[in-house]
# Entry
Amino acid sequence: MSTVLEPLKEVTGEPVSRSETRWKVKFTREHLALSAILLLSAFLGLWNLSINNYSNEFYASAVRSMTQSWHNFFYLAFDPGAFVTVDKPPLAFMIQAAFAKVLGFNGVSLLLPEALAGVGGVFLLYLMIKRAFGTAAGLLSALMLAITPIFVAMNRDNNPDSLLVFTLIVAAWAILRAAELGKLRWLLLSGVLVGLAFNIKMLEAWIVLPAFYLMYFLFARTTWLKKVLHLAAATLVILIVSFSWAVAVDLTPASDRPYIDGSTNNTVVDLIFGYNGLGRVDGNENGSGGMGRNNGNASQGQLALQGGDGSQATNSAQRGFPGGQNFQAPPNSGQPGNFGGPGGPGGGAGFGGQPGITRLIVPQMAGEFNWFFPLALLGLVFLSANAWFGMKKGLERSRRLQMVALWGGWFLLYGIVLSFSKGIIHNYYMTIIAPAEAALAGTALVMLWKSYKQGGWLAWLLPVGVAATAFYQAYILTGFTSWNWWLSPVLLVAGLGTLVGLSAGIFLRNQPLGQKINLGMVGAITALLLVTPALWSIRLLSTSLTGSIPSGTPTGAEMGGFGRNSASASSTLVPQAWLDFIKSNLSGQLTLLLSVVVLAGVVIGLKFLFRKGAGKFFSLPVVSAVLLAFFLIGSTSFWINVAQAKSTTSSSFSFDRMGNFGGPEGGQTSQQLIQYLEQNQDGYKYLVAVSDSNSASSMIIETGLPVMSMGGFSGSDKIITTTAQVEQLIRSHTVRYFMLGGRGGSNNAVSQYVQQSCKVVDSSLYSASNTSSGTGSTQSGTTNTFRDGRNGMGGFGGQQALYVCGS
# Structure
């Protein structure tokens, strides 16, 4: 049983009575259904979480550094020596560091806050939708969000996106309360939360502000003058909270803090409006860290080293890939410009495809989040018109208009920005749209059903909406035909059957038998629409999410064309391929087919839920239990495969198969190398200096010792650029060993100095699997191969050499 505190009714929108201030014990169907959905969300977020290890090691190494000192914690130091930061604001990683400090530094402690944030977001979405549109809409919207593949993926990953989404959902809840009550304090709370979200992922948090402002200005229950004054006060709060950390860091002397990774002038403000801000929109992403970036006009940062000259060097080369390397797409990859390899400056086509109106609706991107797009789009129009023209003025109408304005604005704003941005767009960014789409689609389905039962021309919208969604899901699956070949035809047939059946059912809606048939068809098609995203989310429980670019699709290959394209995938649609596929995946396919039948039957049984005298077999607790059992059964074959393999395979959700860009960011560092460096550190501050942060990540995680990233995330930051700086590092006993090569390459001046003035270390001293010729001052072209079979610490392969400098 659950205990409900009566004063908390204010949160759910029910009237509050002064006499109802005592505890009451009440157990309802609604509570059971909500509990089942929250348990499902927790299951998808928490189960087998350790399989992901440290996930994105670039961020994990920063968290380990942050746990070592308050200085590192505040300045978001990437390395324990506080030489450089990561290219993000600190709040999400501060939360992770707090969990790591309490629970110990391990993969689960870093991923736990994201998983909890996912459950919290599902719960808050339910509360908000229920308040305006009722329990059924709230439950269905929460369920849709809970099973959205990219939402689940990010809840199992240490990228900051899940915490960003949760913080903005809380901000949305606060501003809805402010609009309903006309109270400034709620609006200021929303402003504080938006400011905190800004300190999770900078300008991405502000994209939703026009929707917030417009909703409050049009529909807040207060005077026009107060609306203007309230929004002005909220804006001030947002600016103060948003820029508090940036101003504090930029006002700190450069010699007393780490270099700001991703910036061109060693300031957070430049990072905000450049690489992490407007650069993502216009493609001019000067700074560090990504593909297709134009560094030609980047102003040069200064290195703040005690005793260093701080001189600068320029590099006017345009980099089409980190470190200026020429990228060759692997076999079967997409064509450049069509979800192909990295593009030129800006690189937009290298990750998220060509900018344009179709970017988010093609299978490669839509498979992450867009499973209910037709219903969401129809819902935006229908719900707006229905509330504006079809309801009398009052609290209920006001709440609905507020809700549609907020979630509709959220949906459109992020959709437009992500569709037309010319800079780097990763598939996992789509998790920010998931709450709005779930809110609109879930609410639309319930409200369209109510309109269908009333008859009239609006009744035709329900069959059109659900059929269009089924057809669209079938289209999405055409990009993933090697994963499953039969669901797409099932969706097409079911969509067509539902369209015809519900259209005919309009004329029979007043007949008892017709009502039952109509409800059964709606229940069945709803169940079918939930199947594919749910099963894709379940797959994540047995798949390791590693690397910097997680995905919720069955294969990361569809992301940006780094794997097979849809043309090669469609070659499986021949009879022999069908037979081979069924033979090799028999247990999984039977489980999926059984899941479809079970879930369809369960939802048809929903017709008994709200009828008086219905049998206990059709009660909501039983239905909820069957739904949860469906998800557990659906994953059985995957657990069996994992158990039989006796080991976890590498992630199919990252770019690990495609150029080694995914997987553990820096590769698995050789234990012999770590042991050699620790034994010969000889009082120097840093264990070793490497070209880029990814090359340093795994070593920092394993040792907790300072490792210097001379070029930041991708090796292109202008931090160490001159021979004078290198000499000072050596003279001041800061760095003794240099590892040249890696993902980002090395600065030419630095490389030449190290090669000419230092000695190459015989690789046999730190790697049993490698050999090296000579110990002179010239590079001998050694190749370091680590435990995961990759070449080079940076994960791209190639040659690296370890040099020792000084006496």
Q: What stands out?
A: The two ends are 72 Å apart (CA to CA). Residues 512-539 form the longest helix (28 residues).
